[in-house]
Amino acid sequence: MILKNKEMSTLHIEISASSVAWYGAIVATISVIASIILGMITLLRDRASIKIKISHGFLVYSPNLSKDLYIFIEASNKGRRPVTLTSVGFKLKNGHNIVFIKSRELPKELTEGKSYQEWVSKKEIKRDCQRLKTSIKYAWFKDATGRVYKGRYKLKDA
Predict the structure, then answer these.
(1) 83: domain range?
(2) Do 74 and 145 reside in the same domain of the chain?
(3) Is 68 within a domain?
(4) The CATH number of the domain where 59 resides is what?
(5) What's the predicted TM-score (pTM) here?
(6) Contacts of 73 (CB under 8 A, 6+ apart)
């Protein structure tokens, strides 16, 4: 059997230096943007996030309900960082604060997913607001760093 040499065609690819530079710049820019986005997501996810909820109801003592209606202020840590709550109270529309000086367990550390609740007689708060000729603007908890977490007060008569 006789083999004949066939001409092989060759393929030449030329890449200019500017094309390589543009490709490198695009890849680097995409990497920087992705790093910034991931860093921001991690930062937001890993910080403390306290949610304040205000409600009212009665306290239950054994088989009996309390005679007074109470305002409940609850702080829940929805973030990953622990937060130490140091004080709780109401901000009034006249600019003053009502601070609970006889809190149950403050200071209290809230870890991820934990909550803490304080309560006060609605009758007492209503009486104080009437005496001061004002009403409640919002409820708040303050942490050990001085940061204030606010919750809208939507209840009537105080």
Answers:
(1) 50-152
(2) yes
(3) yes
(4) 2.60.40
(5) 0.69
(6) 52, 53, 54, 88, 117, 118, 119, 139, 141, 151
Contact 140, 148 (CB under 8 A): yes
Which residue's structure tokens are 């601070």? 99
pLDDT tens digit string along 47-102? 778 999 999 888 887 677 777 889 999 999 998 899 999 999 999 999 999 998 88
Distance CA 69, CA 155 (A): 12
**110 and 35 fall within a common domain:** no
113 Cβ contact list (under 8 Å, min separation 6): 77, 78
**Do 29 and 59 sit in the same domain of this protein?**
no
42 shares its domain with 70: no
Q: Strand 108-110 vs strand 70-77: parallel, antiparallel, or unpaired?
A: unpaired
Torsion of CA 93, 91, 99, 48, to 10 degrees: 180
